[in-house]
Amino acid sequence: MSIKFFPVGLQIAVSYPAFQVNLVLLSATQLKFEITDGPFARAEIVDIQVVPLGNSIFVVSWQEKDGATVTNVQDYDKNQIHSFATLPNGDFLRMTGAFSVTRPAETTFDERPQRNKALVLEAMTSLFQRHDASAVQRLYADEYIQHNPDIPQGRQALQTLVANLPSEVYYEPGMMIAEGQFVAIHGRIRGWAEQPQVVVDIFRVENGKLAEHWDVLQNEIPPKNAVGGIAMFDPEEGI
Fold it and tell me: Count of alpha carbons within 13 Å of 154, Cβ hemisphere only?
């Protein structure tokens, strides 16, 4: 994770147990806060230091005009902020608040889609190219949910399936689409059925592992036999 992913321009409303704060991320060096009610009600623009921790988490710290110091752990995966503040009188506050976005960032900052696509690609090639059954424990959630009616539920069932795959089963990945916690991958698999099949697999990612799966398979029709004359799958489509 790089500082370049800090969501400059983002405006959020943070709900702490005792009050609400509006934050505007003006740049990677300044933010504006507005406490809308309670004994701390005020607005101020402060200089900040931002430290990226990875997985869309940033530590943001600043000092206010009255001497108060604040450190926020901003988690954009979970839409939470963990705040630690030392007040001018020496009181120390620990608070956690959920936030909602009131204005989006100027540029895309969420790197989850890229991480999730890499996870799905690793899983599909490990299991259905290299037939590495051990990868299931590493890449799939304990309570893995399977929507394919021909495959039993659970991670152990998937591991058993991969361990017993015929040697001719081979998967070719194509284009991938990701948003939030979902990834769709278009590909072709040989040896799964009597003829090659084109498949769309959809995954839900949770806590860095594949938690749920849907798929749709269709027998591949060569371009010369297709009404439109266009291939159903092209290995270069994902490049």
Answer: 4
- Cα–Cα distance, 35 to 216 (Å, whole number): 50
**What is the CATH number that goes with domain 112-238?**
3.10.450.50
By C-alpha distance, which of 114, 161, 117 is closest to 135?
161
Domain ranges for the chain: 3-103, 112-238
pLDDT digits (tens, 9 = 90+) for 1-11: 578 788 999 99
Helix (H) or strand (E) holding 122: helix 112-128
Fold equal for 3-103 and 112-238: no
CATH number for the region 3-103 comes to: 2.40.128.20
Please write the tens of the pLDDT for every residue from 173-213.
Answer: 999 999 878 999 999 999 898 899 999 999 999 888 999 99
- Quote the pTM value: 0.59
Rounded CA gap, 205 and 183, in Å? 8
Residue 78: is it exposed, middle or buried by C-beta count within 10 angstroms (0-12/13-18/19+)?
exposed
Q: Tokens 């959809």 map to which residue?
A: 202
Helix axes 112-128, 155-163, angle to 10 degrees: 40
